[in-house]
Model the fold of this input.
Amino acid sequence: MVTVNCRLPYFQYLFDTLYHALAIHLNTVFVTADELYYRKAETVGYIQLLSDGQ
Done:
């Protein structure tokens, strides 16, 4: 059995990471409004910041 101690702020990163991974798998772009996650993940690609308006 594996237990994970997740605090509320980390759940957002978890969900963003899962949606981003799904976008990569589907060869599409994940659009996020979370600038902090975007800055950390932009080098991977397949991600766009909502405020970019592209």
Observations:
- Residues 10 and 29 are 22 Å apart (CA to CA).
- The chain has two helices and two strands.
